[in-house]
Amino acid sequence: TETTSTTTVKPADHQIEKRSPIDYIEPILSLASKAYNEYMDPGLKKNFEKPPSIR
After folding, report:
1. Could you give the C-alpha distances from 27 to 19, 43, 45, in angstroms and in order?
2. Please, which domain of life does this record's source organism belong to (predicted)?
3. Is the model's pTM score more than 0.90?
4. pLDDT score at 4
5. Where are the domains of the chain?
6. Distance (Å, rounded) from C-alpha 40 to C-alpha 37?
7. Residue 25 to residue 19: CA distance in whole angstroms
8. What are the C-alpha distances in Å from 39 to residues 22, 24, 34, 44, 50?
C-alpha cells in the first residue's frame, strides 16, 4: 500500500507545483490592477492594463 500511496502523491504534487505559481500570481495581478485603478490616472491605467512582459 505504501508504494501505491507514493505513486498517488507524486502526480498530485507535480500538478500542485505547476499550478502554485499561477495561483499566487493571479491574485497579486488582480490586487495590482485594483491598486492601479485606485491611484493612477485613467490614461496611465490603460497603459498598465497589458503588461509588456507577462510571459
Report:
1. 13, 23, 18
2. Eukaryota
3. no
4. 53
5. 2-49
6. 6
7. 10
8. 26, 23, 9, 10, 17
